[in-house]
């Protein structure tokens, strides 16, 4: 340890720091430069500054033999934290007198003594400045006086809010729901609040002094960015007051909003397409009846009326699907009750369109156990499953309905001999508006809501529904419900 402080070097270095501030630099660059100036002038092996917030402290600037500690946290109940925040404002101490984990780390780096001074604003501690030494010699009063002066300078920087605090545990910054970061002219993170860590999955230690994990939009602009894990962030940025060397960045997770926007756009596209077909047919036949009534035979008139009725039924079912998909479809608050599944299936078949009924083959055992659920909703479930089976299989090919039960569950299956389903699509088929490949969409029109509604209805009754390829070709849809 030098007998005297190199005051000329300290003054010259401090002048450089002041020039940095006058030119617009702030925050960590200035703080780090101040430590670099002080270390040789004080004859210290390393310098460090610990910033304190409501949840504890963190080393935000370090030089020399203390650089390894950069970013290291100190818990609010850590013995070293308690020691640093109590006692005289400036003092010298043996590292061995500290009782926390940090003391052991310092000793392991060959550092035995320190001069420490708290940086305060109006009696409120914002951090502590440390000059670290390897020997056993006690630092003199001059070292303590300079450290106290430099700590006061740092406290003044905090009072001016010139890029500080850094590690984001200030009460306002920590309370923000949006991610908040401050980056320097090199694009490196200097502030990272708790919400930023939560949104990105990057801890403060992983973020500080490193580039942002997403593109930085130009100042004053907004950018939506998709992260590698598929989540979407909405990012804004703006220059902090001064010549623009620091930039504040805010961001939030908008994945759900993106999904809702996509669903809304898809909803408009699907409904406009699916509504147009029956409306066009109804209008065409209605115009034919109006304009050519006298020239049409009774058979033609009946056929036109029959088509109008069929298309009107299709339109009504489509509207019901769309309304149900936008609402909480299901049994509501009615408690589940035991019901005869076999009888419920036979009754539901009666309400199906005639061309679909003719294709059905029912194989229901007479001793089928009762199911526990909501019987009225079964009609919707069976209608959607059989309609789906009919759409993806050849006209006239059979659609088989079977059922079985065991000690806990009762199940029924709808099997077709159609184009089948690829294994990778058995889950996606239950997504709202999902239609498979574009070729399938063109060949098999529909709103993509039937299976989505089926899953919601069945799961609200503590059951589940699944799809699987049928042996020999086709698809099997199976619904399982608790046994009554």
UniProtKB/TrEMBL annotation:
Residues annotated as domain Histidine kinase: 270-484
Subcellular location: Cell membrane; Membrane
CDD domains: HisKA, PAS
Membrane topology: Multi-pass membrane protein
Enzyme Commission number: 2.7.13.3
Catalytically driven reaction(s): ATP + protein L-histidine = ADP + protein N-phospho-L-histidine
GO BP terms in the entry: osmosensory signaling via phosphorelay pathway
Superkingdom: Bacteria
InterPro entries: BphY/WalK/GraS-like (IPR050351), HATPase_C_sf (IPR036890), HATPase_dom (IPR003594), His_kinase_dom (IPR005467), HisK_dim/P_dom (IPR003661), HisK_dim/P_sf (IPR036097), PAS (IPR000014), PAS-like_dom_sf (IPR035965)
Keyword Transferase attached: yes
Residues of the PAS domain: 172-210
Pfam families, sorted: HATPase_c, HisKA, PAS_4
Keyword Membrane belongs to the record: yes
GO CC term, one of those recorded: plasma membrane
Main location: membrane
Keywords: ATP-binding, Kinase, Membrane, Nucleotide-binding, Phosphoprotein, Transferase, Transmembrane, Transmembrane helix, Two-component regulatory system
GO MF annotations, alphabetized: ATP binding; phosphorelay response regulator activity; phosphorelay sensor kinase activity; protein kinase activator activity
Protein's recorded name: Sensor-like histidine kinase SenX3
Lineage: Bacteria, Bacillati, Actinomycetota, Actinomycetes, Micromonosporales
